Every structure is written in structure tokens, then in C-alpha cells.
Amino acid sequence: MESGGGAASTPRTLPYYVAFSQLLGLTVVAMTGAWLGLYRGGIAWESALQFNVHPLCMVIGLVFLQGDALLVYRVFRNEAKRTTKVLHGVLHVFALIIALVGLVAVFDYHKKNGYADLYSLHSWCGILVFVLYFVQWIVGFSFFLFPGASFSLRSRYRPQHVFFGATIFLLSVGTALLGLKEALLFKLGKSGLSQNQTHPLWCLDITPTP
């Protein structure tokens, strides 16, 4: 959970890039919420709408918050290393918890309704990404926050941590897009899918509210 240290000059254009990334991230979260609310019936835990908790949590946790965690060392490069390290870790903690809620929601929904788990490419990619993210989180905590790893060991592992962090983030974005595409395919093929009862929630013919 650590990147390179030491004070460095901040590029003049960095604040604009950061502001754009935050605007883009918040727009994605807002659009996901609006899509679920207007076209998927909304969000509720104890109902058929429990499944909708899944995409919203995954977008917030593994896309928006994980992306912000990766930006910490760029945005606060002149702050104390311990401060940026803690902020980086806290954002990842929230991302992990929210993503875990999203996973629990989809598995619990399947269990309540008797549907099969892990039946699509998106679901397998999602489990892979979450496992990789969890392993990255545990290893990062052990190396950079737990007071046991030596400085030389941290220095050797840091490049791998940065590389896998960026890779897992890109995989998270790709998996989210794959899930949205899967939802579209379910919607387009709602007749056949309703008969097979693969995932009837996506087949609900819900029109947007005025």
C-alpha cells in the first residue's frame, strides 16, 4: 500500500486531471444509481431488488474508491508518507467492505431464489478480480502497514505492488463493463431467459418513472 517517497514537484496540470477523474467517477456512480432506479426498479435488500445492490456496490467499491486509492500518492505527493499511506489504506478498506457487500447481495439473492451461482463469464471474472484484490490488500497491509517487514523487503516488493494495483483496477473496470453488457444481453433476450429462469431479475420489463 505504498509508493515512492520523498517530496516532488506537482505538475501544473495534475489538479485538472484529478478534478476530471473525480467528476468522471462520480458521474459513473450517479449514472449507475439512476439506471438502477429508473430502469431496474430501485434497490432493496429484502426483495427481488436485492440483486441491484451488487452492481452499485461494485462500481462504488472496485471502480470509484479503488481508483481514488491509486491516486493518493500522486495527489498528495508532498504530504508526509505516513499520512498518504494511511489514506491509501483507508480508501482500500472502504472499497473492500463495499465490494464484499455487493458480493454477499448477489449470492444471497441467488440462494433465496434457488438460482445457480457463477454461471457466466462476468461472474467468473468478478470472483477472480475480487480474490486478486483481496490478496493484494492482504499483502500490501502485511508489507507496508504491519510493523514487521524490513525496509529492503518493502523496497523490493513496491514495484510489484504498484503494477498489480494498476492491473487489478483495470480488470475491475473491464469486469464491470462486462457485467453491464451481460445485463443488456439478458434484457434483449428476456423471452428465452425468462423461460430458462437463468436470471429473471434482468428480464423485468420496468419502464422509467416520470
UniProtKB/TrEMBL annotation:
UniProt keyword terms in alphabetical order: Cytoplasmic vesicle, Electron transport, Heme, Iron, Membrane, Metal-binding, Translocase, Transmembrane, Transmembrane helix, Transport
Major location (coarse): membrane
Domain of life: Eukaryota
Subcellular location: Cytoplasmic vesicle, Secretory vesicle, Chromaffin granule membrane
Catalysed reaction, written as an equation: monodehydro-L-ascorbate radical(out) + L-ascorbate(in) = monodehydro-L-ascorbate radical(in) + L-ascorbate(out)
A GO molecular function held by the record: metal ion binding
Entries under Pfam families matching the protein: Cytochrom_B561 (PF03188)
Family annotation (InterPro entries): CYB561/CYBRD1-like, Cyt_b561/ferric_Rdtase_TM
Bilayer disposition of the protein: Multi-pass membrane protein
Purpose of the protein: Transmembrane reductase that uses ascorbate as an electron donor in the cytoplasm and transfers electrons across membranes to reduce monodehydro-L-ascorbate radical in the lumen of secretory vesicles. It is therefore involved the regeneration and homeostasis within secretory vesicles of ascorbate which in turn provides reducing equivalents needed to support the activity of intravesicular enzymes.
Name of the featured protein: Transmembrane ascorbate-dependent reductase CYB561
Organism of derivation: Prolemur simus (Greater bamboo lemur)
Native organism taxonomy: Eukaryota, Metazoa, Chordata, Craniata, Vertebrata
Encoding gene per record: CYB561
